[in-house]
Amino acid sequence: MTFLLGSGAGFSGDRTDAAIPVVAELIRRGQPAALLFETLGERTLAAAHRARHDDPDAGFEPLLDELLEPVLDDCLANGIAILGNFGAANPAGACERVRALAQGAGRADIRIGHVQGDDIRSRLSRIDLQRWEGESGEMPGEEALISANVYLGAAPLVEALALGAEVVVTGRVADPSLFLAPLMHYFSWAWDDWDRLAAGTMAGHLGECGSQVSGGYFADPGLKDVPDLATVGYPIIEVEEDGSLVVTKPPGTGGCVTEHTVKEQLLYEVHDPGGYLTPDVIVDLSGVRVYEIGPDRVAVSGIRGRPAPERLKTTVCYAGGWQGEAEISYAGPNAFARAQLAAEVLRERLTFRAPPELRSRFDIIGHTSVFDSDTGDLQRQTAGQESGDYRLRLAVGHAERRWVERATQELLALYCAGPAGGGGVRRQFQRRICTASYLVQRSDVEAFATLYGTPMNDDRSHDHGAQ
Amino acid sequence: MAPSDDVKMMSLHRLAHARAGDKGERLNLALFAYDPRHYDILLAQITEDRLQALFAHRGVSRVRRYPLPGLAGMNLVLDDVLQGGVNGALNLDGHGKTLSFLLLGMAIAVPATLEG
Known about the structure:
A: alpha+beta, 19 strands
């Protein structure tokens, strides 16, 4: 028996029409299936907390309506469960939105699973925190703390499905756990069947970034050509009861599923391939094999699992002051020299117009930018008197808004007081929310699911809120 | 391998493909030979020391290489190269997503008979 996992989105800001051909194919096949929306990363969780900070009703995926509306009816009518971490910093708000969408489609009786327990902000000071090994920064002070969200595993999502949820809304859940949950629910795998848990987790890992496994984020013209990227098909992962899996995509869509696309995604954001940590299992990829078994069909085998880690990763968001950016363009003869002069003028101005602790960076876009360091090492190594089309970019950071405003205003002033022929100034600044990663003990986390809006469950969530 | 009559220099980009991923200030670069027969060339030349030099200007503090012969590739894990990471960097590309192509721009020595 095969279970189909369809990806509807791989990040917040992904294509909102991607799920349509995936759902059409899941319905055509008529096999048990789920549709997964992964829309929450370190960047988007911070953005969601920033949004909720400004508006208590916000903080869930801003594109929720656009993602769900085209497919919600079809999924509900065909028994395709939808699971998404689109609750972000406000899962209850997302549940309310899903209910409104379902109501509009004549399904006021929709069963929405509401997963809670990832938000440990209120208990953070009483919890034993360990710094994540890749984390070098100090724990921010209490006054700067905005949020703390644990990466939950699949268990509370399975609980939601067992309650009969048709749509499961979560906040911070490990991305692959979204995919593992419907497999656990359907196949009733044991929670210590580590190899199957690892296979299900890797089905999730391969699907969680949407088209990144099926031709998206892959094309390199002449070397890695991808057909019809404008209509790239989002992946469908076929999973068998024994944990074997095949990556494919809906027929008639663009993109491609090849050995190469699958390999790139296999290690995406992985550190030690012999010990990929997730809340549900430690995955060992050292013996993995990837085989093309047909057009746009790739099998992945050799995935092994070990007992899940003792501690769970937690993302802490804290106020990181302000950041600002401003840009100006120089083009035509001697453009690079004029852009460099503009950077020198600006740098000198900031030495007496801004405090020394202002962080700043000067890119000359078109010459060197994203590869460079904050101190411009590459730019210095490769200076010349070149013609072209360059854009000087200033980026600054400071705890106080006024210095970020002041510094970016200095770039604006290059219009009149800088080198000849500068144009196209753009300037923006915003509050920065930084993130840091810690590890917490499982016993300090209580994750659970309720059906949204049912009185008994409201009582239960009230109890938890009062802890 | 140094350039001589038997070898020539080539961009790694011709032999291999790569994808970058980030977590906090840590970057991973997954690198794969297009042709599994070229895996040994990558293994010999894409070393932790060369990666350390390539990313020195970004303040890399540690490089670890995990060879994956079954995939004809390797995972390269670099600590502290993101200068603040996705939520703290001044760099336009706070994720470090473009850095897979900094890696692929490396020159490597290959047998002179190799096409490309």
